[in-house]
Design a protein that fits this description.
The chain folds into two domains: 52 residues, no CATH class; 230 residues, Neuraminidase (6 Propeller). The chain has one helix and 25 strands.
Amino acid sequence: MSNFTDFIGGGGGSEVNDTKYINSRTALITTESGEKWLQSGTLSTDTATYSDATALVTGATYTNSNYTPPNQGSVMSGLMYDGTNFWISYRNSQKISKYSFNGSAFTHISDISIGSGTEPVGMEYIASSVNQYDNGVAVIYVADSNGGHVKRWNASTGAVMSTYISSQAGCFGVVVIDDVVYVGRQNGYVYMFSALNHAALSPTAFAIAEVGTQGQNMSKHNGYIWVTNRDGVAFKYSTSGIYQGSSADLNPASVSSTEYGGLAFVGDKVYSNNNQDNKVYQFNQNNSVGISAKSTQGGAPLYTRIK
């Protein structure tokens, strides 16, 4: 058993999920009082033993369940969950469609027309928009890959909102985290804008090297950004663009070289879709505790307390 003070040079109170840089090479440090500290870059799937630690999604396993939504448009693209219902975008029909889901089947509710000449792909639902023109209403951000715009629609009335993010050629996805709008583009970068007024932030963008120029859609979960490529593999990034070392194959049909659709995190499940068979696939989330990406300071690795 390792004495914690041997590594940090002193004691001090701590809680589960706290982090410290510790001069050690031991993957899992156990203190004399029974605390457990896990080195960054190392994950534990034993979420039952470490139940107080924050569990993070690090992958997904197909449940062998898939569904065919009714009232489809042409070329199924994005997939989103608004907390109650699913939304699916149809690129060639220039619409996004709202569906309820009872665990075994989708039921069509309504459509919002995105406009002639558009190609709606990624979507993001915000229950109370902070944009200066939105008066706090619920909105849906939609990435238009043809027009290179990210516009907002009133989620209740279907009306387009004032102002939008422009000059985003090849945009495929959009998420909003902590009043920052993240826009994925097929040049291999994610761009950042203020949700208040669409002003570009500094830094303006970060690279998504693991996805490259094949980005297809985006989603968020627990403060992280997931980006899918053309083969339906989703890669996990922090909001500063650091790849977390986690990915999920959301392509059980082995559809290759196609414009794969979106992904949505719902409870302990992940859902994905594609434009080849127009189905929605269900996965179980694979959860782990720890910090995915290795981090060091002055040669000392970062640790997180998991018990």
